[in-house]
Specification:
The protein has about 230 residues and is of the alpha/beta class. It has helices at about 5-20, 55-60, 75-85, 90-95, 115-135, 145-150, 160-165, 200-205, 205-220; strands at about 40, 45-50, 95-100, 140-145, 190-195. The radius of gyration is 17 Å and the shape is globular.
Length: about 230
């Protein structure tokens, strides 16, 4: 079993190796410590974020735990709501981690020269696989479109809207054919339920309207134990 000390040591080793990578080093914010994971005492769900980088570099310095779960705010409220809809407790029943664990000097979508997520994932995937191995068969919720595009295997749809059965005239034709990624459809080899990240959830009315419906579907497929 991977302990917090083991994980911290491995993260330091990976970050040191990345600093030597000529394609990556100039995009890494190496002044900031890698945020700690969030680990409940009875893990029933894994929440996977993309990476810890936010646009405001002053805000980055305040992030000491994955998905900013040390504090409060819009993202914390969003994740709390997700867990409540699923019938679990965020503090007790969730293991939260990031696909890529280091900070960049700008959000990855703003770095156009290279695909920093793909380059960094080569370093971080072995760590993530070891994290997931601690919780066999526990389902995963992913946050955001860029992350979903990173984890889907070739030939598999990588749009969140696809799994939410989004139609052009969704106000008239409500989504009904909800779906998720089965183990063979992602590099995580686990059932994966794609969710929008919190800003997209707030900005895009479709996601805001149908979050409870998708989570009701997800709950029926996850077969989570009741608290």
């Amino acid at each position: 079993m991977t302990t917090s000390i083991d994980l911290e040591r491995r993260c330091d080793e990976v970050l040191a190796a990345m600093k030597q990578d000529p394609h990556l080093s100039k995009y890494i914010d190496s002044q900031l410590k890698i945020p700690a994971v969030h680990r409940g005492t009875d893990v029933r769900l894994i929440i996977l974020g993309q990476d810890p980088t936010v646009k405001d570099d002053r805000s980055r310095k305040k992030i000491i735990k994955v998905l900013n779960l040390k504090g409060s705010g819009a993202l914390h409220n969003y994740l709390t709501r997700i867990c409540l809809e699923l019938g679990i407790d965020l503090a007790k029943n969730v293991y939260a981690t990031n696909y890529v664990k280091n900070f960049f000097n700008a959000p990855p979508t703003q770095i156009k020269q290279v695909d920093v997520l793909a380059l960094a994932a080569r370093y971080w995937l072995p760590v993530l696989y070891d994290e997931l191995a601690q919780f066999p068969d526990v389902p995963i919720v992913t946050l955001g479109l860029p992350l979903l595009k990173q984890i889907t295997v070739e030939g598999v749809n990588s749009e969140i809207s696809h799994y939410w059965d989004h139609k052009k005239h969704w106000q008239i034709h409500a989504p009904m054919n909800w779906s998720y990624l089965e183990p063979h459809q992602s590099i995580l080899n686990r059932n994966v339920f794609p969710l929008p990240h919190q800003p997209s959830f707030m900005r895009i009315k479709f996601y805001h309207n149908y979050l409870p419906d998708y989570l009701r579907f997800a709950k029926s497929k996850m077969k989570l134990k009741a608290n």
